[in-house]
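[job 4471] stage=fold_predict status=RUNNING
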Amino acid sequence: MLIGYARVSTTDQDTALQLAALRKAGVAPRRIREETASGAGPRVVLEQLLRDLRPGDEVIVYKLDRLARGVRDLLRIVDAIDEAGASFRSITEAIDTGKPAGKLALAMLGAVGEFERDLIKERAAAGFAAARARGVHIGKPRLFNERGEKQIASLFLSGRYTRSELARMHKCSISTMRRILERNGIDPGYMPPMPDDRDAA
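[job 4471] inference complete, writing structure tokens
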């Protein structure tokens, strides 16, 4: 059985082109599932379609971007279709998993997607390394600058304040305070001697 799927986003409300292409491909109007969902939102109709598939069914879409949000999402959906014993066809890209050439095209698409993800990771890692080499801090911004951290370390070394007290004073967590002190060469287990005036108090 041929099953069509048409999706529009909240900014694109016209399914006329998709519906016309699906009907021309032989999908009966009552077998076309329409959905309005953004690229990032849940696709309830699609997920229900996948659950209802039976062996021998064929899911048809006008374009790949109407079905999936990216290569990884596409492969997940096509795997679900395949596990149900059904096949998939995209009209615009001429991909038909019911044929050997279609399966090969999908496999190549997956390989290209994996290659693209690896390149993105590699570029990101190189960018982070270059930024660190320039002295740029990567991650959450620090609560205190270098001078402020040295002042905190001096207060701790004076023996007048514990890590917990300093954390409360500066409105940060105890783990953040430990990292500040460690960055200033203070061992996590070190406790400075308490001054005489505090001891007396």
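[job 4471] summary: The radius of gyration is 30 Å.
[job 4471] exit 0
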